Amino acid sequence: xxxxTRRGLxxxxxxxxxxxxxxxxxxxxxxxxxxTEGPFYPxxxxxxxxxxxxxxxVSGAVEQAGGEIIRITGKLMSKxxxxxxxxRIEIWQCDVNGKYLHPNDNSKVSYDNxxxxxxxxxxxxxxxxxxxxxxxxxxxxxxxHIHVKVLDxxxxxxxxxFYIAGNKLNSTDGLxxxxxxxxxxxxxxxxxxxxxxxxxxxxxxx
Length: 206
Ligand SMILES: [Fe+2]
What we know:
- The protein is of the alpha/beta class.
- It folds into 2 domains: about 1-30; about 30-205, Protocatechuate 3,4-Dioxygenase, subunit A, CATH 2.60.130.10.
- About 15% of the residues lie in helices and about 25% in strands.
- The strands form 2 sheets. Strands 1, 4, 8, 9 and 10 form a 5-stranded mixed β-sheet that branches. A 5-stranded mixed β-sheet has the order 3-2-5-6-7.
- Strand 5 (about 145-150) and strand 6 form a beta hairpin.
- The model is unreliable at about 15-25 (pLDDT under 50).
- Fe (ii) ion binds next to strand 5.
- Fe (ii) ion binds near residues 38, 139, 145 and 147.
């Protein structure tokens, strides 16, 4: 009978410990809940020429967007925690007055041309993305929210929405209420003030 060497045992132990740590991580990552795209996703033809990840500055526009500036950062990752490097993340939302950059938004207010309304970023090698935009404001019948889409090339992987943690309208929002507490936590923006700007971190797990 072959006896296990001390080194063999140690290797086995490390492998098991590693597996346990790996599964713990996998279990802790709650999948980002899916949500409807809504009626105002701007097609390419509806967007400004500027579609970068800074939505408060439109190139060529004199005025900066109205509203409270925020920075959103986070990671795009698989449920095993693998970074989704090179994936595209898009956001779109209404301007400070609740108007979308979309011809079908019939609200009477005029659109804030200093607000980009739509932007995208490409996740870096570690899956990191970031946006500068405005804190979402009121929109009739909804809690404040930001629409989010993640794509791998042309393939859409996820459409979801981000909310403001603790906003009083969340509890009356049909889409928000459909989520479990854990899911809602995963898409709720908690803000901290840094360098005179509100910052929040949301990881997107697909
Ligand atoms: Fe919306």
